[in-house]
Amino acid sequence: MNTSPINTGKRSLVRMLVTVALALLTMAALLPAGARQADAADFATDLVAVATAEANSYGGRHECNSSTMSARVGQYWSSLGLNLNGCNRDVPWSAAFVSYMMREANAGSEFRYSSAHRVYIHDAFAGGRGLYGSVQDTNSATARPGDLVCSGRGRVANWTYNSFSSWYSRGGINNDSIPTHCDIVTATSGNNVTVVGGNVGQTVTRKTVSLTSYAILLPVAGNSSTPDNGGNASGRGEIIGKGGMCLDLPGQNTANGTDLWIYSCNGTVAQSWTIDNGEFRVMGKCLDIEGTEQRGSDVQITLCGYTGDLQWYVTSAGEIKSARFPALCLDIRWGSTANRTPVQMWTCNGTAAQQWVTPS
Known about the structure:
The protein is an alpha+beta fold. It folds into two domains: 33-218, endopeptidase fold (from Nostoc punctiforme) (Alpha-Beta Complex); 235-354, Trefoil (Acidic Fibroblast Growth Factor, subunit A). Helix content is 26%, strand content 23%. The protein contains six helices and 17 strands. The protein has helices spanning 5-29, 33-58, 67-78, 94-104, 117-125, 161-169; strands at residues 136-137, 148-152, 180-189, 192-200, 203-210, 216-218, 235-237, 245-248, 261-264, 273-276, 279-282, 285-289, 299-302, 312-314, 320-322, 328-332, 341-347. The radius of gyration is 24 Å and the shape is elongated. The relative contact order is 0.11. The model is unreliable at 1-8, 17-38 and 225-232 (pLDDT under 50).
């Protein structure tokens, strides 16, 4: 069969474009964690700027009494594909406002846009899409500009962090459509936060309140706890977790892919860890995340240099994290302190199951 020069040229062009696209994806995957955090910091700055400007533009004007503001609310809805405006008083628009601010700050595909706050709360518990991948208790969290602060409303108005965590464990949005509200943090002072929110008093408002007046905080990527020393912790000895249990290599088995667990501290080489330059080593092998490297993945050992540059570090809260997955923490499954309990990667939640004492 003859092939026309035009078709041949088209196929060559397609192959070239695919090659370029794959190269760009590879470059993105290899982007250093510090560069990604810088991008997140730029995003947070942009989000604060657009949210503050939006609050200033309202000047207290009502969502419906002002045709300009009614149309502006209509833009929030339109970005979600809905034909509504500020005079559709029976439909709360606070989540549509947050979603629109995210678009204006160029969140791109790294935020789950929705007309309901509970959707991106659920998404953050699940590990998120890049910008908001963890949920913290406001009683112990430190807020920074660009973070989201949220609470329940109506029947769940008194919910705490633990209530939200239990809700997610029961299926979250797939089980219970809870009423919620979130605001954008634009400034902080001590334990107080200045926030901008939509559909508050039927307008966009800015206010300063105590962080603990909200139940949960969704830190923007790069805003959560950071390495105590730039990720370059060093030391040799035991890694001790909840209940005084040690991170242990079962049976001193150094085969690649051996899953780790916790065990009573016993001073053996299976519990003698060397922490150096982003690696956690035991018996000549390195700490690694199994399989798809996601929430719930087991933690194992493998050949050093074959961990995909995870760059482990310890936060000031005693969490062990990887710079590639800052929303996930080394976690004792089920929070158990029994011998042989596996360890895993799980959404950072501030519990004792994710707090470790490491050698220095």
